[in-house]
Amino acid sequence: MSFTKLKLIDPLLRAIEERGYKEATFIQKKAIPQILQRKNVMGIAKTGAGKTAAYSIPVVQLIHRIDKKSTGKPTLRALVVTPNDKLSLQAGKSFSDYAKHTIVKHAVVTKHDDQSQVKLLEEGVNVLIVNAKEIEPLQNKNKDTFKDVKILVLDEFDAMLKDGSKEQIEKMLGNIPSGIQTICFTGSAGPDIDGLLKQRLEGAEKFEVYPRPKKGDKNKPNKKSDKSKKDGAKANAKKKKKKKGGGRKSTEMSDKLKAKFLWPLEK
Predict the structure, then answer these.
(1) pLDDT band at 200 (very low <50, low <70, confident <90, very high)
(2) Among 69, 72, 96, 186, which residue's beta carbon has the most beta carbons within 10 A?
(3) What's the distance, CA 162 to chain centroid?
């Protein structure tokens, strides 16, 4: 699907074109319209699915539309939480690329005591990108840091759980306003993730993207071929049963079953 069909504003389409992108990935064409409608979203996909653009593009558009007429210091509207500094910097690059023709300003905080970053926050930004471990120190410095946040993005949430305990993540989430639009992208799902985000992702749109198995890779699960094998086994059982009775009709029926059930395996 072309990005032009996703109801994006011209400054974003211009930035996307400058990056050389024309077609949205599956996760992007599913998530972007839902985020623009202010819905909670849960996206499950491995690296390379286009998750960062799937949230950064619509977040830029939402903030640009809300604050484009505002004057004075930018207001923090979106908080993007990542599991580590490397992903924070990658997300920051994405916002730099997509927001360059809009009023949206962002900051990437890797150390809460970095004076240049603190100064940037004091001057005002619309989007703050930070790793999960820096949430509490930032709030301890200024309890009102997140009071105007309307959008929470949890990037690679499963990796956050691997890097910290469930209790630590729960505490981190407790420092962020509840009841706001929540967008979660994760490489995998599980009971811990569902439990931690149950309230925040109430009524969320859920999208799952799994990589296609490579040709000839026998270790990859293939539900269709598994079903065909089961059907083929049933056909063979019926064939043997018919053979016991003998006769032309029995043989013809066996041939038909073979054609119907075994052909998909031979394709």
Answers:
(1) very high
(2) 186
(3) 17
The domain limits of the chain are 3-209, 223-266
CATH topology for 3-209 is: Rossmann fold (3.40.50)
Give the span between the Cα atoms of 81 and 157, in whole angstroms. Answer: 9
229-237: long-range contacts, CB 8 A cutoff, minimum separation 24: 229/265, 231/261, 232/261, 232/262, 232/265, 234/261, 235/260, 235/261, 235/262
pLDDT at 254 over 80: no
DSSP character string of 113-170 = T-HHHHHHHHH--SEEEEEGGGHHHHHHH-TTTTTT--EEEEESHHHHHHHS-HHHHH
Alpha-carbon gap, residue 23 to 16, rounded angstroms: 10
CA separation for the pair 221, 205 (Å, rounded)? 26
Both tokens of 176, joined, read: 């962020």
Residues in the chain: 267
Q: Is 148 exposed, middle or buried (0-12, 13-18, 19+ CB in 10 A)?
A: exposed
Q: What are phi and psi of 132, to 5 degrees?
A: -55, -30
